[in-house]
Design a protein that fits this description.
The protein is of the alpha+beta class. Helix content is 34%, strand content 24%. The longest helix has 17 residues. Keywords: Acyltransferase, Transferase.
């Protein structure tokens, strides 16, 4: 089942089913080889922490699973992500799968203010959502599909999702060699569509079957310069399973 990306605001954007991904099957030996080379880069974030003004992005580890599991008990989130409820054991297995898969790049989104203001605070206590990139086209390893979710209701509408998307776009360009990005959003989700349009995405397709629109951003020289300006404050730090400390 494919998610429709329908939401009540800008906090849940363009989700695929996070428990059973759908991937476009490509043909041709050269396309598969190119995808394999690009996919090898997708796991680079396992040792990376990205520090922004509003959010901190950290790799999805077993420490985050209990809080994530609680989020996904929500019928609202299950609907928005087209997901079925999992047991805690299944959620741990899913986390391992997502971390090991070469075609996914996932960061957990932390509230930067809370993370920095409370010395010794666990990452789990600062979690607000996640942001993801997927390689979905075997023929084009420079194309990534982006998703973001702000699961904590109290943290929505504060720009955390916007900064998380900008940071992930920058990471995709500078570390994963991506030059094009797509977001698939429910047709009725005008706030989400407007947010991506403000980030220079343009609508390129509409699916009546999935009731969604596809928006795309291509990294021209001017767009690349703009993105780097928007994320010039972001710091990249080493991460080792929660060992990174707040500044």
């Amino acid at each position: 089942m494919r998610a429709l990306g329908i939401s009540l605001g800008t906090w849940c954007l363009g989700f695929r089913n996070r428990h059973s991904a759908e991937w476009t099957e490509g043909t041709g030996k050269n396309g598969a080889q190119a995808w394999s080379l690009g996919a090898a880069n997708m796991r680079l974030n396992q040792n990376t922490l990205l520090l922004g003004k509003k959010v901190v992005l950290v790799p999805y580890t077993s420490e985050h699973v209990p809080r994530y599991h609680e989020w996904m008990k929500s019928e609202e989130l299950q609907h928005l992500t087209a997901s079925e409820p999992l047991s805690l054991e299944q959620e741990y297995a899913m986390q391992r799968s997502w971390r090991e898969d070469a075609d996914k790049c996932t960061f957990i989104v932390l509230d930067a203010e809370k993370w920095q203001a409370q010395p010794g605070a666990t990452e789990e206590s600062c979690m607000v959502g996640d942001v993801n990139l997927f390689l979905t086209d075997l023929e084009d390893p420079t194309l990534g599909e982006i998703e973001v979710m702000i699961a904590e209701p109290s943290c929505r509408g504060k720009g955390l999702g916007t900064e998380a998307v900008l940071m992930m776009l920058s990471y995709g360009v500078t570390r994963l060699d991506l030059t094009k990005f797509e977001a698939k959003i429910g047709q009725g989700n005008e706030p989400s569509i407007r947010m991506f349009q403000k980030l220079h995405f343009e609508q390129v397709a509409v699916s009546s079957v999935f009731q969604e629109v596809t928006l795309r951003l291509t990294m021209s020289e001017s767009e690349h310069h703009w993105l780097l300006e928007q994320t010039s404050h972001v710091e990249e730090k080493p991460y080792r399973d929660g060992s990174a400390e707040p500044c």
